[in-house]
Amino acid sequence: MKFLAARRRSPLAAVAMLLIALIGIGAGYAVIANARPAEAAAVASTETQVEQGKRLYLEGCASCHGMQSQGTSQGPTLVGVGAASVDFQVGSGRMPMAAPGSQAVARDPAQYTDDQIAAMAAYVASLAPGPAIPTAEDVNFESADAAQGGVLFRTNCSQCHQAAGQGGALTQGKWAPSLMQAEPKEIYEAMITGPQSMPVFSNATIPTQDKQAIIKYIDTLQTLPDPGGLALGRLGPVPETVFLWTAVFAALIGVAIWIGIKAR
Q: For the segment 92-135, what is each residue's pLDDT rounded down to a tens digit?
């Protein structure tokens, strides 16, 4: 103890403590100095993307949605719809609409690149909080339960999209599209944004794991074989039986007419 006390009273101890403090401060400053440029670069990159998205929006979207995205008689407001809505609508080619109509039609989104779509999504997201674009983890359905997804789909989706996901007619010239070509991210974004006549299924209504189960069920429908050959829209045994009896009776009537003509 006396040895340590003597060391603390030594002039060299004060110098050593000062050097240690200076080295610690210098190291801390170096870390902060290196982090700030990266952070500033990320902020600048985001601001640049938002500005690019705003320019693209003003060129291709403002005529219907308004200069401030407030909405007009030709299109709804985009304030609060989030990046996911833009990614879904523009990424699927539904927007900008080719012509006014009761419903936007999916088509090749060749008008915009992926970077341009991301920029417009960033701009709309900057207006107000809204659903974000789902991550790869969000749409990963490998461990999901397809059977549970089928139950959820028939409960929440089949009224419009039909139990086999083939789509169907709605009111006022609108329709629920077929899901046979829908990608997992597209399905997820549709559930969280509610495009067209579709309701919004937030994570409070249908949790992420249930969304993944629905996506897996739809994926099963997309890859399901038709051992009978003719799927008939997979509408079930009733329409298939009606079709069969219609074909059989038509064939019998045709044979009867042929026999009658031959008998003359």
A: 999 988 777 888 888 887 789 999 999 999 999 999 999 999 99
Whole-angstrom distance, CA of residue 259 vs CA of residue 93? 55
Q: Which residues constitute the domain of residue 194? A: 135-234
Torsion of CA 180, 184, 185, 190, to 10 degrees: 50
Q: What is the 3-state secondary structure (H, E, C) of 4-73?
A: HHHHHHCHHHHHHHHHHHHHHHHHHHHHHHHHHHHHHHHHHHHHHHHHHHHHHHHHHCHHHHCCCCCCEC
Which is nearest to 167 in space by CA: 95, 243, 105, 97?
105
CATH number reported for the structural domain that contains residue 173 in this entry: 1.10.760.10
Residue 6 is which amino acid?
A: A
Tokens 């008008």 -> residue:
111
How many other CB atoms are there within 10 angstroms of residue 170's CB atom?
A: 16
122/85 Cα distance (integer angstroms)? 11
pLDDT band at 5 (very low <50, low <70, confident <90, very high): low
Instruction: State which H helix or E strand residue 169 sits in.
Output: strand 168-169
Select from 98, 133, 168 the last residue of a domain: 133
CATH of the domain at 105: 1.10.760
Q: What is the pTM of this model?
A: 0.73
